[in-house]
Amino acid sequence: MNEPDEPIVESPELVRPYVITNGRGLPEDGQFNLITLVTASDQPRPAHLDPEKHRVLDLCAGGMLSVAEIAGHMKLPIGIVKVVLSDLSSEGYLVVRPPVPRAQLADVSLLQEVLDGLHARFG
Amino acid sequence: MGSTPGSADAVYLDGGVKTAAKILVVGHFAVGKTTFIGTMSEIPPLRTEERMTQAGAQVDDLMGVRGKTTTTVAMDFGRITLSEKLVLYLFGTPGQERFVQVWEDMTKGALGALILVDPERLKESFAVIDLVEQYGLPYAISVNHFDDTAIRSDDELREALDLLPETPIVTCDARDQKSSADALIALVRYLQTRTARSMT
């Protein structure tokens, strides 16, 4: 795999994905971060749903994934995926497990868990 | 996995996972971030893209394109399930100043950063270290060791990179899982000591 550092510059006519979000950007205090964990809820889907929402729900129906993984599998930019997820969540189609808030992240016990996990897996 | 609905190539998390943590793997172009993540990840590394629509006049000038241009920054990432309740994500983050918008998102909620350094190209790491410091992220230095590179002493590196005495320096071969895991462990140990200190 190549190093991804070099930006790819696209011409405006190739910028399609915001059509999916009806031109909306991301809400500032978005509920979704790269490592927010998401899975589909039991709520039945209506017959009419945007194709991208369908695809996201199909993907999420299999189990839990992070927002970044959903974007990676769908080959869509993170920003777009967050908007789609935010819609699906407010409509009740998703179960969302938000990341640990920053203050708790400094938590000694979380770091200990990470350390124990690394030792257990790679020790 | 695999008999469930969903995407054919998605590897899902265990249902019991409650917490996701994030560590950034940063470094200059071609320093080995992608290799490191590939070595450590339990899933084939994925790539995400972040679009920077307001990339600014600087980029427009650079590219000689008028009007609204979109720059796409790609980041590779991987996943390590650490226990039945905890998953760790490793994000490879480009270290260029012009990707500041991406950095805001990447650093939010990150435990810390592992900075990969090529001892033959130390100068190229300056900008990366500046960025990590600017975002207040604690970090460890991992000297990516290739077979034919001369090993520099820690003191030399510390001085050249202007590091604090406490900043860990480890040597690692990004192609080797044990060696890469040891680099992560050194970082997490350091994060623990910092946290313990801030609580007293």
TrEMBL record, chain A:
It holds the Pfam family DUF742. InterPro entries: DUF742 (IPR007995). This is DUF742 domain-containing protein. It comes from Actinacidiphila yanglinensis.
From TrEMBL, chain B:
Belongs to the GPN-loop GTPase family. It comes from Actinacidiphila yanglinensis. Keywords: GTP-binding, Hydrolase, Nucleotide-binding. One of its GO terms (molecular function) is GTP binding. The lineage of its organism: Bacteria, Bacillati, Actinomycetota, Actinomycetes, Kitasatosporales. This is ATP/GTP-binding protein. Pfam families: ATP_bind_1.
